[in-house]
Each structure stands twice: as structure tokens, then as C-alpha cells.
What we know:
The structure holds two protein chains of two kinds.
Chain A: E1 5-7, E2 10-13, E3 19-24, E4 31-37, E5 44-50, E6 53-57, E7 65-68, E8 75-79, E9 88-95, E10 104-105, E11 109-113
Parallel strand pairs in A: 2-11
Antiparallel strand pairs in A: 1-3, 3-8, 4-5, 4-9, 5-6, 7-8, 9-10, 9-11
Chain B: E1 4-5, E2 10-14, E3 19-21, E4 24-25, E5 32-38, E6 45-50, E7 56-58, E8 64-68, E9 73-78, E10 87-97, E11 100-105, E12 109-114
Parallel strand pairs in B: 2-12
Antiparallel strand pairs in B: 1-4, 3-9, 5-6, 5-10, 7-8, 8-9, 10-11, 10-12
Amino acid sequence: DTGVSQDPRHKITKRGQNVTFRCDPISEHNRLYWYRQTLGQGPEFLTYFQNEAQLEKSRLLSDRFSAERPKGSFSTLEIQRTEQGDSAMYLCASSLGTANEKLFFGSGTQLSVL
Amino acid sequence: AQSVSQHNHHVILSEAASLELGCNYSYGGTVNLFWYVQYPGQHLQLLLKYFSGDPLVKGIKGFEAEFIKSKFSFNLRKPSVQWSDTAEYFCAVNAPAGGSYIPTFGRGTSLIVHP
Lengths: 114, 115
């Protein structure tokens, strides 16, 4: 067990609905990342937080996506008006925040948009 | 922005065969390099990393990787694979991007080891 937990593990939704995912990082980790992974591809960066501050967002990230990390603890990723192209595994990772520190990944949330 | 290329997308080997997976990155400055592994049904986990010192680094389960700065490469090797090495392998680079360090991943290599 890595210590990073994500909820839910699976989410099936209809196109146009909003969905929200939660990530609980390892408690002493100040950095939290969201990645998206599709079949046959590596994790694609979405956004990251240093404590409660969202410091970087991918330019590829649609404005339908929003993330928060209130109080620098857990984080939520919301997708509004889901599209079939949003179907993917959404991964959360945390780290101590230095450049040579490894990422600890959660098991991910598999989103299917019908 | 940095990019990471993994040349072998699918590799099939028999047990005891030697393994080498290629990884090249695009960033020209100081980098931190990682190999992660994802076993079937499990989360991504670190195999090994390089950030300074000896360019030949050793990781878990007999894996090693060599950083060759002149070639912008960080290839993963194992002298003799086992069936339990069947997994997805991802190379990642952590390099400065707009004042931050954002780990960038390659598309991965699927390794199947036949017993």
C-alpha cells in the first residue's frame, strides 16, 4: 500500500454529467499531482499543487477541468459536462516536493463516459 | 518543454533472456531520471532513479539503468528476466519547466515474459 488513496476506483457516467474524484495523499507530502492515463500511453500531466497552491496546469487541460486542494491536504478533481474523450484513468500522486524525490501513486480512478 | 521517448512499446521475452529498454529525453540541462513499473493490477511504483553521482544506478529486483548524458539516454537493463517481470515500464524525467519541476513520462513499454 503506497499510502495514496483515491476514491472512487471506478466511475461510469453519462455524457454531459459532472464528476468529482478525490485523492488523499501521504500526510507529510506537500506536493500533489494529477495525471491522466489512457490505454497504451504513459501518465499525462494535468496539474499539481504545492500545499494548497495550484502552481501549474497543463495547457492541454480544458476549462471543464478544475482541481482544488483546500488546506493542503486532500484534493478533488472535477470534470464538468463530461465528454466521451474524458474516459481515462485519473491518477493522483504525491511527493515530498524536491526534484529528485519519487512520486507515490494511488491506484487511480477509472472513468467511463457513455 | 521536455519530452520522453521510449522506443520499444511491446517487448516479448523468454525467461532468462536479457532485457534493455530504451529511454531518451529532450531536456539539455540538469535532469532527474526515473524508471517506474506497473505490475498487472497494481499502482505505479519506483524501480530506480538517478539524480547525481555514478551514472550506473541499481534498483529493485536486479534492474539497473545507465545515464549517458551525451546521448540524453537512460536505458533500463536486466541481465536475466523472470516471468514476474511482466509489467508496464515507464521512463520519467523531472526537469525544470517554467520554474517548477514536473515529472514527464514516456508512453511506456509493455513487457511480457514467457515462462
